[in-house]
Each structure stands twice: as structure tokens, then as C-alpha cells.
Write a structure and sequence with these properties.
The chain has 17 helices and eleven strands. With 359 residues, the protein is an alpha/beta fold. The chain folds into two domains: 212 residues, P-loop containing nucleotide triphosphate hydrolases (Rossmann fold); 131 residues. The strands form four sheets. The chain has a five-stranded parallel beta sheet with strand order 4-7-10-3-11. Strand 1 and strand 2 form a beta hairpin. Helix 3 packs across helix 5, helix 12 packs across helix 13 and helix 15 packs across helix 17. The two termini are 43 Å apart.
């Protein structure tokens, strides 16, 4: 749709979803629009008839299988991992493939209330007519239960524990009571919850035991090797560039490898040859940061350069990723530049020089 900043997955990949549905050869669970095998093909890539289905998630295929199988049961799915491990990305595409609607979302924050999870009221109508069905304001959870859809609960562990526990009765009984009007909403077949949790957030291990039992936990690790991370970043940067209509060339593989080498080494606290230990910054050296950095570099190159990413653009991005308003981060970055980047020869010298100018 023209003019939309970020299309939903089910709109971007509508043709692939339609193709998978039309070529379906396996049993479709009640409430789903395609079989689990087709959902796996949609997420991990493959063929449907003569159509090539693109991979939306590059990583452990078995983890995707576990996630899909979980959604076939009466348990909900909790995706856990470091920032930038594609938890929200996988959640969105699972919802798009299974129900064709990935937009029923609750964003967990310190300000999330029980009303965001259950329901609230149109207070003008409530005062005028009292509690009635028409005065009820349905939450995304309410709508997902009524339609047999999937509710995406992003960053669930950012919510206060008592707010999290509002989910317990819903996930146990698969119904939502509205006692003010004597109404109870039973969940239709197909209803489930996909929650995500960030391991860097304080409180990630403070979900109550009762709530944890309602979820099957799938932990998404960071990309294990450079090749996997390189493929993820190149794919996502290309998609972002097309969506944002950036007037610049895509970064070449050498530029992407340099960015990933820096972030992977600082993340691990060890150089790629395993010979030197490194201090780690306070920020998160994630795949998502690499994607954002390179997308920003394209914006700079297209708006203020000749459309081609250079070392200055990469240095600007790395400076912002590594140094998060922290004196310690500045010293970590400076030491890394002197002890590692400077010694890597002529190919790395432009990045070293550009980075030094920013310190």
C-alpha cells in the first residue's frame, strides 16, 4: 500500500502466503489457514509449486519446528533471547502465516495495565447507559480470542508481575469473563499467545511459576557464525532499503563483514582469531544493531554523499552503537581501535582514521 511506512508481514508476503494456501497438500489444523509444514516453508524458505518461497528466518530450523508445534497445543509460546535475535520478527511471521493477521499486539511496558490485556470501557457510554456490550472496548487479547487468532505479547517481562499474572486465568481456562455484564468469552479454536522476552531486561526471570507453566519456552541464540549473520543482515538491510526507498547502493559484502566483525568481537570479548581478549561495552552488539547501522549508513550516503557507503558512514554508525553515553564505552572503543583495528592493515585504515576523528 503506497505511503505506508511499515507494512505488515501478511501484506508484504501476500503472494507467497496465497501460493502456499493454494498448493496445500497436508491437513490444516482448526483455526489455521495452512498446515504446519507450509508454515515452516513460509518461515524457513523452500518451494511451493513452481514458486520460490523466501526465507524469513535464517537460523535453527528445529527451533522453528518447536515453535510451530507448540502453537498446535494448548500451551502458549514464549520466545526468549538477547536483543536482536529476531524474536519479534519470528512472532510476526508465525502469526502472519498461521492466521493471516499479525497486528493483534500488546506491547509490554512498565505502564501496561490489566485493561490492556482484558478489556476497558468507553466511559461516556458507560456513564450514559451503564455497563453494556456496546460500551465495552475490546483489547487485542479479546479480539484474538473472539476470532481464533494469535495475540502477540511483546516484551512481556517489562510488565509488572501482577499484570503478567492477569494472563494466568485466560491461558488456563481459554476464556475471558466480563462480570459487569455477566458475559464470558470462550476462545475460538486457533487462539494462542506468542510472547517475547529480552534476556537483558531486569525481571526476565521473575515471571511467576504459575505463568511460566502456561508457556513453552524457545530460546533464540545469536547467529552462531559469521556466514549466518552476514546472510541475515544483507537480507534485512535490502528489505529495509526497499521499504524506506533509500537512494543509495546496498553495502558491499566487505563493508558488512567489517561491521559484523567489530560487533561480534566486542560482543564476545575476544578477537576473531581467538588470540586477544577484549573489554566489552555496555551496549548490545546485536544483529539488529548491525542492520540499523547499515540502514542509517545508506541514508547518509544517499542524502549527503554519492550514494555509496564509505568508511566515514560506517565509523559514524559504529560510534553510535558502541558508545552509549558512557565514559567506559568511550575507553573500550578507543582501546579496540588502537589494539585491533589499527593493526589490521591498509584495508582497515580508512575505518580507523574515520573513527579516531569522532573521539
Amino acid at each position: 500500500m503506497a505511503g505506508i511506512l511499515r507494512e505488515a508481514a501478511e501484506n508484504i508476503y501476500a503472494y507467497e502466503i496465497k501460493t502456499l494456501i493454494e498448493n496445500e497438500q497436508y491437513d490444516i489444523p482448526s483455526g489455521w489457514q495452512m498446515s504446519p509444514r507450509s508454515v515452516l516453508t513460509y518461515i524457513c524458505g523452500g518451494k511451493s509449486g513452481d514458486v520460490e518461497i523466501s526465507a524469513k528466518f535464517i537460523g535453527h530450523k528445529r527451533l522453528v519446528e518447536i515453535a510451530i508445534a507448540t502453537l498446535l497445543t494448548d500451551r502458549s509460546l514464549l520466545l526468549v533471547g538477547e536483543p536482536g535475535t529476531a524474536k519479534s520478527w519470528l512472532s510476526e511471521h508465525l502469526s502472519a502465516a498461521i492466521t493471516g493477521d499479525s497486528k493483534k499486539i500488546i506491547q509490554g511496558t512498565a505502564g501496561t495495565t490489566e485493561e490492556h490485556i482484558r478489556y476497558s470501557w468507553n466511559y461516556a457510554m458507560l456513564i450514559a447507559n451503564g455497563p453494556t456490550q456496546s460500551a465495552l472496548v475490546e483489547s487485542p487479547m479479546f479480539k484474538a480470542m473472539a476470532s481464533g487468532g494469535i495475540l502477540r505479547f511483546e516484551e512481556i517481562t517489562r510488565c509488572a508481575p501482577e499484570i503478567q499474572d492477569a494472563l494466568i486465568s485466560i491461558l488456563s481456562e481459554k476464556s475471558l469473563a466480563v462480570p459487569e455484564i455477566g458475559f464470558e468469552l470462550p476462545a475460538k479454536k486457533g487462539f494462542s499467545v506468542i510472547a517475547t522476552a529480552n534476556t537483558r531486561d531486569k525481571g526476565v526471570n521473575e515471571m511467576s511459576a504459575a505463568l511460566k507453566r502456561r508457556f513453552n519456552v524457545v530460546t533464540l541464540p545469536p547467529p552462531a557464525d559469521m556466514e549466518t549473520e552476514l546472510a541475515i543482515v544483507q537480507q534485512r538491510v535490502a528489505e529495509s532499503a526497499e521499504s524506506l526507498d533509500l537512494k543509495a547502493k546496498l553495502p558491499d559484502q566487505q563493508a558488512v563483514k567489517k561491521v559484523l566483525t567489530v560487533l561480534r568481537e566486542l560482543r564476545a570479548g575476544l578477537t576473531s582469531d581467538g588470540k586477544s581478549k577484549l573489554k566489552t561495552p555496555s551496549g548490545i552488539m546485536s544483529t539488529a544493531e548491525a542492520i540499523s547501522l547499515l540502514t542509517g549508513a545508506m541514508a547518509m550516503a544517499g542524502s549527503f554523499g554519492d550514494g555509496e557507503i564509505n568508511s566515514e558512514h560506517l565509523a559514524n554508525g559504529l560510534h553510535g552503537v558502541v558508545i552509549k553515553d558512557d565514559h567506559k564505552d568511550r575507553s573500550v572503543w578507543q582501546e579496540y581501535l588502537e589494539q585491533v583495528v589499527k593493526k589490521r592493515g591498509a584495508d582497515w585504515r580508512p575505518l580507523y582514521d574515520a573513527s579516531k576523528q569522532l573521539l
